[in-house]
Each structure stands twice: as C-alpha cells, then as structure tokens.
Amino acid sequence: MKKIGILYGMENSFPLSLVERINAKNIPGITAELMRIDKLIQDRPVGYDVILDRISHDVPFYRALLKNAALTATAVCNNPFYLSLEEKFMANVIASHVGVPVPKTALIPSNQLPPDTTENSFRNLVMPLDWDTIFNHVGFPAFMKPHAGGGWKSVSKVNNAEEFYAEHRKTEQLVMMLQEAIEFDAYFRCYCIGQTEIRIMPYEPRNPHHLRYTASFNVSETIIEKIKDYCLRINLALGYDFNTVEFAVRNEIPYAIDFTNPTPDCEPTSVGEENFQWVLEAAANMLIRKAEEQKPLADNLTWGTFLHSAVNGKMISPDSVMNLLIG
Questions:
Q1: According to the CATH classification, is domain 2-80 in 3.40.1550.10?
Q2: What is the pLDDT at residue 307?
Q3: Would you kindly state where each structural domain of the chain is located, as residue ranges?
Q4: Of 76, 90, 226, 305, whose CB neighbour count within 10 A is largest?
C-alpha cells in the first residue's frame, strides 16, 4: 500500500479536503492521511511514500524530517532541499535567465549589523553604497521588500530617496531588495501544480484580502499564453511541484512579481470555491501520480533545470527549459 501524507499547520479546509478527495478516488493500493509523527530516527523512513509539505518553512524540525524522508525514498513535494531557492532575489536572477521578464531589482544590505558580526565583518562593502546608480537603475516609485520570506511582511512602497532611507531604517537586520514598481494594467495569480497544470486567476493585490480574487481584467489570448509559458518556465527552472506565480501586466508584458510560494493560500474563504475545487483536484491527481511512480531505494524528488545545469557545469538558459517544455 502506498501512503500519502499531508504535513500541515494552522490551515484547516485544504489539508483535510485533500485527504478526502484522494481517498474518494478509490485508487487501488493508494491511501492518504494527515501525517502523524511520533519519532524521527536518523536514516529511517518516516512511513510515507509521498508527502505534501505545507508547513516546514516555519518549523525547522519538519525541514530536517523532510530531508531525512527524501533521502529514504519519499517523494516530498516540494523538494525540501530547495528551500534556499525561496530567496526572492536569487529566484529573480533564475527567472531572468530563462527568459521571464522581472522588475529591475537591486539587493540592499541590512540596515543594522546581523548577530555575531561587527563593522569589520563588512570591510569589503563600500559604504555609503552607490545609491545614485541603484536609484537610477530601479527608478521610483519602487517597492522595498525582504530578499527572502513570504507574504507582505516588511514590504513598503517608496516614492523617492528620502522615503527609501526612512523605510530602510525600520528594516533593522533584514536584507532587502529595492524593486521597480510595475504600474500594471492587469494582474494574475497562477497555481502551478505538478509542473503541468496551471490555473490563471485574476487577482487585485490592492483589494482587501478577502476581495482579491474578485478582480476581472480584459486581456488578449496572447497575454494569457505568455503567462502560461512563463509560469511553466519558472517552475521547471526552480523545481516546484506546487507553487503560485504572480504576474503584473504592463504594456502587454507580463512581469513575474512573486513566484516563490510553495505553500500558497488554498483556503476557500480567500481563493473562492471554484479555485478551491480546482486546486484540490489538481493536487490530488499530482500526489496520486507521485505515489504510483515512487520507487523504493531511489531519489523520488523533483529537481529543477537550475540545479541540473549547475551539476553539468553549464549556466541555466531558456533553451534548457524549452527542451523540457517541448519534450
């Protein structure tokens, strides 16, 4: 019997509904449940053939558990060794390398010294930074946001250098990005499941949270096809089985804004019932397929083209992703 486990935290509807959806399909030899963990012994399997991770980004113990599970043949979604790719700055670089438009961005050191460092730790860093070049490259208005982490925590919009300096002082020990503000004509959030299934959802980030999915934008089919293509490129490059990608459309160009969301919101009260049912079905089918394909004593993880290219001593390129898209 192949067993699928859902590792989850504070969310309620999606994990239980996903277990019920998988089991309702009555696939011979496959069952699903909410994970139960009473011990973690080094190099021993955790008792699940497939795991969907919805919480390890917040729980270090779970991160270690999932890596141990992956090394003992569990198919973990998403790949637990990819957590570092959730650094938004690095992901931006990777997206750009595979031909996906992203906003102009600069990395900004923390305003205050990190723990266990002194000013001597930063003797290679020229201070003050070349702010004129940074500001001229990014332009104003701009968004300042942490280079890693999710949600809208510590995000601010700045309209000039003075506002930037004032907001930067508030960020304390966070490493930040200064990113071009895309004044968009349309905005979309996309589920991407199993690197094949895409759900493009009109989304208005300026609305209150519970109204963001009630948006409606009139765009051409050409733009929709571009969004699908860019969504696949990003997820193939980063190796995500489960992710959301946000696109701001300006002058008919979709810019990838936020695309390292391996545990995106799936609650029906925020995404709406229709989207909720879609993601339930897509996730259930993906996890069942993973269980059917899982092999004992094997690597059952999804690895993106970024690491494939690095292992082969090559730079990631649009061609490396296109070969997967068409092949």
A1: no
A2: 77
A3: 2-80, 104-180
A4: 76
